[in-house]
Amino acid sequence: MAKVKMTTPLVEMDGDEMTRILWGMIKDELIIPFVDLKTEYYDLGLEYRNATNDQVTIDAANAIKKYGVGVKCATITPNAARMKEYDLKEMWKSPNGTIRAILDGTVFRAPIIVDPIKPYVRNWKKPITIARHAYGDIYRDVEMKVEGKGKCELVFTSEDGKEKRELIHNFDGAGVVLGMHNLDKSIESFARSCFNFALDTKQDLWFATKDTISKKYDHTFKDIFQEIFDKEYKNKFYEVGIEYFYTLIDDAVARVVKSEGGMIWACKNYDGDVMSDMVATAFGSLAMMTSVLVSPEGNYEYEAAHGTVQRHYYKHLKGEETSTNSMATIFAWSGALRKRGELDGNKELMDFADKLEKASIQTIEEGIMTKDLASLASMENVKAVNSEEFIKSIRERL
Ligand code: NAP
Ligand code: MG
Q1: Could you tell me which of 1, 116, 134, 230 has the fewest CB atoms within 10 Å of its CB?
Q2: Is the CB of 20 under 6 A from ligand 1?
Q3: What domain of life (predicted)?
């Protein structure tokens, strides 16, 4: 058959362990036979990151800025055990953190929904996408244990030496305090990424904080979102027929549970940390969770939300059979190819991305799935297959 043509490359970032094995199979079986694939390849596998003093990660992030679209395999974030295992020169930072810092992006996570896997929340029919603000709040706080009696204050000293003070508490005994911050600039780019992604995917955007209690801190988030919405997005939302909806965080939680899904839920850093795990679990499996980093300038990086599946990799190394779910990694590829097609006006490429996703979902809905899903599926005659058989079954349908 004639392969689908590509005009502009996408940035391909290879990774580690079991997902690196899946990466190769996905390309060989599901992409290269059908698409005249053009990528700029960066090897973010830990060995090569170590060899290049992590320069390869920085180069990959800059390439995403250049080409606008990237697809990334899961990678190891080194810890003490990995230092030994890979004989590392340094405990290199998380590649995702490095890329996010360079692109200044927001991460959107959404589950892949298939019929045999029923969400724990009965009425959820459509994916719920969580957008987590990835800067500040308690993740960059300063904390103190107070030993006994004394006064604790917030003091801001401006450049010209003027001081602004607020009493936090007059302690008459031991206790704890914390100071945290955020930046208008970071909240603004978070807001723009969320509004852009809502327009992109034609889904309503929900945002929630606790502004009634936190009248300056949380209220600033609410105000910045509202201001940017009114000035830059109101008309565009109206044209596309979607809504921006603000409410209190506790009200949002209640409404989300009662909803049928299909919205983007923008969360402050801590809320996003907690709610993304809740939503992922409630939809069934981390292996079915997709993730895309969207920068305020409109650069996109697609990946699976899960890690390198180390336990399966060690089985694979011992020559044992694995049944690792490649859905989220396949959807990272289809997401990136579709976006590439959109940016280049390449309809054929967009259609291919749709077909790849359809064939993958169809495979599971016909009862062929990896073990993680087989144990959750509410259907008869489920056939649990190994990593390779699953990808080959998708290819047959594709
Ligand atoms: P993980 O790779 O997400 O795997 C945790 C467990 O979840 C697995 O052992 C497996 O459970 C299950 N699982 C995850 N993905 C699966 C899939 N596709 N198919 C089937 N089962 C799946 O997390 P981890 O083991 O904590 O981390 C391993 C490495 O990944 C670490 O070095 C970490 O730094 C890295 N990591 C990278 C990213 C990223 O690049 N975005 C994200 C998270 C973690 P069973 O063992 O019960 O089968
Ligand atoms: Mg969490």
Answers
A1: 1
A2: no
A3: Bacteria
Predicted TM-score of the model (pTM) = 0.91
**Tell me: the pLDDT tens digits for 369-383?**
999 999 999 898 999
* Rounded Cα distance, 302 and 294, in Å: 9
Q: Class assignment of domain 1-116+287-397?
A: alpha beta
Name the residue ranges covered by the structural domains of the chain: 1-116+287-397, 118-136+182-283, 141-180
pLDDT digits (tens, 9 = 90+) for 283-333: 888 899 999 999 888 899 999 999 999 999 999 999 999 999 999 999 999
Q: Which atom in ligand 1 lies closest to the alpha carbon of residue 306?
A: 3
Ligand nearest to the CA of 279: 2
- 98 annotated as belonging to a binding site for a ligand: yes
Contact between 79 and 92 (Cβ < 8 Å):
no
Ligand closest to Cα of 273 equals: 2
Query: Can you read off the two tokens belonging to residue 187?
Result: 């909240």
- 49 Cβ below 6 A of ligand 1: no
Q: 397 a known binding residue?
A: no
Contact present, 246 and 226 (Cβ < 8 Å) = yes
**325 annotated to a ligand binding site:** yes
Closest CA to 73 of 18, 111, 112: 18
Cα(343) to centroid of ligand 2, in Å? 32
Where does residue 144 rank: exposed (0-12), middle (13-18), buried (19+ CB within 10 A)? exposed
Q: From the CB of 96, is ligand 1 less than 6 Å away?
A: yes
Considering only CA atoms, give the Rg of the chain.
23
Residues with pLDDT less than 70, the chain? none
16 in contact with ligand 1, CB cutoff 6 A: no
Structure tokens at 45: 């596998």
